[in-house]
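Let's do one together. I've listed all components of the complex below, 994 residues spread over three lines.
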Amino acid sequence: MTNAVSSPKKRRLSMHQKQSLAGWAFLAPATLLIFVLSFYPMFSALLTSFKRGRPTALEWSDPLIRNYQFMLRDKVFLQSVTNTLTYLIIQVPIMLALAVIFASLLNNRNLKLRGLFRTCIFLPCATGLVAYSMIFRTLFTYDGMINNVLLRFGIISEAINWLNDPVYAKAVIIIGLIWRWTGYNMVFYLSAMQSIEYSIYEAARIDGANGLQQLTRITIPLLRPIILVTAIMSTNGTLQLFDESVNLTRGGPGNMTITMSHYIYNTMFTKNPNFGYAAAMSFVILVMVAVLAAIQMKVGDKR
Amino acid sequence: MREGALAKYTKKTLMYLFLILASLLSIFPLYWSFISAFNNTQQILGGRMIPSVYLVQNIQNLFEQQDVFTALKNSFATSILQTVVALAVSSIAGYGFEIYHDKAKDSVMSILMLAMMVPFVAVLVPLFQMFTQAGLINSWIGFILPSISTPFLIMYFRNSARSFPRDTLEAARIDGLNEFQIFVRMFVPMMRPTYAAAATITFMNAWNAYLWPKVIMQTNDSITMPMMVANLMGGYVIDYGVVMAGVTICSLPTVIIFFVLQKSFTNAVAGAVK
Amino acid sequence: MKKLVSLLLAIAMTFTFCGALAEEDGKITIWTWDPTFNIKAMEIARDMYLEEHPDAQIEIVERLSEDIETAVIASNGDTSTLPDILLVQDNSFQKFVTNYPEVYADLTGKYDLTDFAPGKVAYSTIDGKNYGIPFDAGTVTATYRVDYLEEAGYTVEDLTDIDWNRFLEIGRDVKEKTGRAMLSGQAGAVDMVMIMLQSCGSSLFNEDGSVNLKDNAALKEVISIYKTMVDEGIFIEVNTWDEYIGTISNQTVVSTMTGCWILSTIMSLPEQKGLWALTNIPKLPNAEGATNYSNNGGSSWAIINGKDIDLALDFMQIYRNVDFYSAILPETSAIATYTPAKDGPAYTAGSDYFNGEPIFATILEYGAQTPSNITGAYYYDARDALGTAITNIILQGGDVDTELATAEDTVNFTMGF
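Okay, and this is what the predicted structure of the assembly comes out as:
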């Protein structure tokens, strides 16, 4: 009798354990890879951030946090932080809002030519980086098309040196980012919308809800997990922004548009290589991203 | 009533105008690079918007200067390999994190998130040294290894797994499927839109990858498409017609992949999914 | 679906090790960039070498300059992934040898450098040891569009052997009459400023390696002229290399002043054939030691340690052969720094693009009169700081003394690490 009662209980427990074990087995390969290929080099970079000297003869710096102290006095680094945060604050909200709007418009089954619109809006992120940066530069350059058009229509009286002006050059980077990544985020929203029953929208429409109400009351709440993922990714991506700064403006004019990652790259690969300082700056980015991600999780992730 | 219809009509027109404008702006650079493949340097820099007659010559020059087939072969191989492996490794991990979540697994997940927060340039040197020792320089494995397990994909699949119904899971268990079978036979087919979106994005990232490949792919035989296009622009003489022919060839595969896969993550197959 | 996946995986796996590194002995691998210039020259060298050594194996790999630099830094002292020979920008040479002395082979006494231009050899000489085999010259030329000058009533003689004050006068006049700017250049890269500075033998560093920005009178003179040119629209600042090339191909500017390798760009523009004239650059009006000659760019070959150095050196003897330089000139427009090359037939010939003038001989003459420049390991740090200073001065009305002092602090700060 006692056996009969206790044995299923024991078996249930072991089944739960078995499932948990299966879970561990599922996540093990990915976790292992990340530990070996990300955390190990990160750890080695962390150690490097306390060192100084020639790359092949690094020695512990004195004091150990010397590289971190230098950062506060490094005007270019501070400039790169300001630039990066400017891009983040302006670009990410605009881009994600646009992506949600596009996704919900394109999710409407009564829309004609949806496939065509969808493909068009996605195309920017399928365009190679080289093409994209070259096209933007060619458009905005001093004797480029934008100036030619504006001059012809008399909107401006003298050509604007877009890429060589601190404010305009930043604007070009932000426009470039929004142009390139809106469709990318839209893809995630569109796929997530497949798990929303379409009949909810039809019911809402019968109840007289307009497009905006459908968006704010149905789409956004149901898409929250994916919006959170994309928000964290975009924040992360913008804080590590590299390609646009390198390819669109070369960080110029005079480091006015340089991003943190670009400056780290320069510190390692174009200037006299300073591995210690580059590593230290990387960890400052890590802390910034981690803090922002934590805030976003707190706000967005209500299980 | 008529006023309502008019407002509705205006709204609809505005919506279409907005979408058309967005579409035109979006395709313009790709259109321009495609058109420019037909033009010569002077026409391209002069902002010519219509095709001229230099396509054949540009393509000939391109194939003379660069080993386009090798670059295409390498780009396809690495991108397909990376997409398949990354989706397999990351989706099962994301599933594991969500379906079997407990305190310990949640903390592991938070730790993994840290991995995406360090700029790649910071780990480039230690990573390169590891790969040199492992003999992975100039190999496809070396190319894909750093990006097959990404916190982003894991997180994406984990969040998507939230919509995997618990009832289905329990029913499958009662039917005697083991945990791996449930993942392969129930989760994967049900999450086709999720996989299609992830595959599109992963393929595209792999195809356009530049910083890591140019460090690790060091021979003429291991060059990829973006590296080839960059090579076209590195000299004292830049033939933009050739560059644009290269850019167009380089952009086509990602566009085609999107065309093929977009059906899966939009409601064309909604019936099959539900 | 599953079958498809596993099939794809299997295919991919089998291809994986195709490109794996398999370096046999007796093979020379070379990394360099630009198929119309350095690569072309190296291919000609290879073919000449193969005539005498039919069994030699020489592989030329196309890699961009920045990719080569990244690869050297990423390998961080381990030469196993590096080639036997690679090309180094002259301005970076000191930085790389100082940071990675174990990577670059010391060629002192192993390669005869006596007939190369001494100013050129200096770029790859560190602490009295030679690490480089000089290749192309970066001798600065001023090239003008004769048609635009004519439109404004000038000839190229009016712009020969002048100083910058006269250049500014002409520049204003040309701008007024033709609406065109005289010059263009990359703003942050400060090429123009560096060219003007070197023309009077001044550098960003002193002989002892200390920074020379805030008390550099010549630099201040240069900045003042440069600012005037930009302010008055005589000089168009662009941001990137291809925009700069664009201002020449688009016929936006009347002239360009940079290293003579730009001839390679000019000669790729057939519709501008015969419209160009070449002369020397203006000199600084006040600076001590001012000349009409300068240098910008150019590169040298380095041989990598841990490889078959003797074999590489044997191959590189081609670069001491007059016939070689005569063969590459018409193909690449790469101007030699090997002095005896000037007697080769190609150098005395005229050029279609420059109205039949024997420009190559002229450039070699300019090269001989160019003052040398101090680079050092922190050269690019200094250039970057100077670029920021000049941007602040020009775009934000910054004060020259304050900005240069800040720039000097920045470089000192970096050097203090």
